[in-house]
Records
---
Amino acid sequence: MSTSSPRKVTLLGATGSIGRSTLDVIGQHPDAYELHAVTAQRSREALFEICRRFEPARAVIGTQEDANWLRAQLREARLTHIDVSHGEAALLEVSRAPEVDAVMSAIVGAAGLLPTLAAVEAGKRVLLANKEALVMSGGLFMDAVSRHGATLLPIDSEHNAIYQCLPMQHRGGLSAHGVSRLLLTASGGPFREWSLSALERVTPDQACAHPNWSMGRKISTDSATLMNKGLELIEACWLFDAKPEQIEVVVHPQSVIHSMVGYADGSILAQMGNPDMRIPIAYGLAWPARIDAGVEPLDLFAVSRLDFEAPDEARFPCLRLAREAMAAGGTAPASLNAANEIAVQAFLDGKLPFLGIAQLVKATLEATEVRAADSLDVILCEDARARQLAERLLHQRSFQRGRA
Ligand code: NAD
Ligand code: MG
């Protein structure tokens, strides 16, 4: 417990899975952390409950109507000191507010990009859960981190594990520090052992029932297609200045090794723990100190064995698509991410079969030109273009209906 004043935190995406885990950790350390702002897109009841419990200075929601509703509820609860606002401009404001020390980026999807960049440009400690922002804008994002002196701490469990296993000063190239490869572990998702024909009939609820992690529906679907591992491969390239060929994906069904770093002398360092996002979140909040995350210590005798397998890219082509997009460079990862967001939503809405996700992403990328990702405008333009194209292909092609 710190004796200095509490660190002020903006929590973007407070009502989501990462948001709730972050609230849990902050709630355990009220003297060390204080919420400046909490945000949500639509879940107004949940945001109201969070306001009641934590009394942040500000709350931000998607629409004016929901903001009016929230204000009325807070008035009734005599919590009028909580300032309520709505929309993207308010998200940017709470991300760069001068009194804020740390911003947890836990909005899902491309919507997280601008608020996260705003926090980076304000030189904050940025706890990065939102991988889509980095996948879209990689080079630009990392340049902004160094230009504005932001402290970027990866929260995605694999990247947090790698961060913990790297030497403190790993900037300046992995090989200069004797690192030979990064081993990105993957649970393999709920369909690791399913045949291709069984995969044709997967429903959204089956895809969202992850064996080891409880997460939002978008990332759960990404875990089931292995696109999540593909996005994470791109994320790792940017975070650790690694080439795709320096990263090996290792399927590890127990999900207790969260990733590893291989060194030139043959050593491999692994970070282990129960699969619970409160561990990387607590690490990010307290770094370089360590605090209690409220997680049971790992019982190695209960785990008893650790298995490792190579990923099967024939059944899970999304991993290969992501690797190819990273190799193509420029705006290709942004287009991959945009097409995937459209495909996953269509799958969750029952408009696209499970195997159609990879097909739609592939078809979108094949019809998309790669441009140099040298400005945010270009990236956002390519994001919009890939979304439109994916929507159009979804309605034109035969993978669209009947099989979901
Ligand atoms: P979730 O769907 O549970 O929550 C998403 C949050 O973002 C909600 O608070 C929602 O209100 C908000 N949001 C959604 N759309 C928005 C928009 N357009 N504008 C503003 N806010 C919006 O998602 P999650 O599982 O918590 O994941 C959040 C991010 O963290 C994702 O990028 C995911 O890839 C990453 N991540 C999650 C986990 C996990 O265990 N859940 C692990 C690693 C990384
Ligand atoms: Mg992860």
Note: The pocket of nicotinamide-adenine-dinucleotide (ligand 1) is lined by residues 13-19, 40-41, 43, 106-108, 111, 129-132, 156, 213, 215-216, 218-219, 277 (CB under 6 Å).
---
Amino acid sequence: MRVAVFSCKPYDKRTLSDCAHGTSLSLSFFESRLSMETVKLVQDFDAVSCFVNDDINADVIASLKQQGVHVIALRCTGFNNVDLQAAKDQDVQVFHVPDYSPTSVAEHAVALIMTLNRKTHRAYHRVKEGNFALEGLMGFNLEGKTVGCVGTGRIGAAFCRIMKGFGCHVYCYDLYPSEALIELGCEYVSLEDLYEKSDIISLHCPLNQSTHHLINQQTLAKMKDGVMIINTSRGALVHAQEAIDALYTGKIGFLGLDVYEQENEIFFEDMSSHIIQDSVFQLMLTFPNVVVTGHQGYFTHEALSHIAATTVDNLLHYRTK
Ligand code: NAD
């Protein structure tokens, strides 16, 4: 089976090549993202492998099918960049990697919390300049704080377990409560209650119509003054401009983001530079109580190996169906 791998970074190429070695898969790697502009590259392929930034809309799927592609193997968990209905209509099978490393993303969410609560990002820059003054760097303990987790699937559950270990009281909201988390002492409440009670709110639900801009002016108004918001899920869960307004008023005391709404438009567009030219984003970065990372929650040795192995398995599984 000939597979066109889109949005491919050197580390993807290494891990995928290792996993596909000795199998019937023949992989070709493309740095560009899959879109209507690049879909013509798949002329001689049976399958494509894509990442979160690839734009797999109905037109792209129709073109894939027309060129003989029957399978899309995503190297990510979320499906929000794929028109699943169009794939079904065109009889194109879509695979994803359901749980490549929930721990990697959960630990990154905790890393953002611990950077913000101890102001490590500011301390580091100060010490680099030889300045050991502690003025303005007062932190707070996590023990005894209330943490709200929105979405307690694989990543959210791993996050809750870690926060329980810190001695936090963990409030959860999910459409499907987890018995294991309840046994651990986590408390499922309504979303309203979670907003009202939490010192820290971490988002681990998928992006869909009901969660788009979940954090906005109205929902922020229900939260504690100075709340910490952490988003390692998908950028559009947070209304960026309204979050900035809340940073100005102090409603948001700390903001930690691994994902940003406009990131897909620039991600992998140009391998030499991944600069977001977005004025709202630039403004966000001027706040000392904001920490942003560039969608690296999943980016660990363990997760990348798992992603590559599952992607290859998915393609081989399709081959033998
Ligand atoms: P999952 O499917 O295991 O869990 C998602 C949970 O959200 C489920 O329990 C589901 O019931 C719940 N949910 C659905 N709609 C909800 C709603 N409206 N309100 C509250 N909960 C809702 O997914 P996961 O593996 O835990 O991943 C969660 C998200 O993390 C993914 O959708 C993806 O967007 C993101 N993610 C980010 C990175 C990264 O590198 N930053 C990596 C992987 C995944």
Note: The chain has a mean pLDDT of 93.
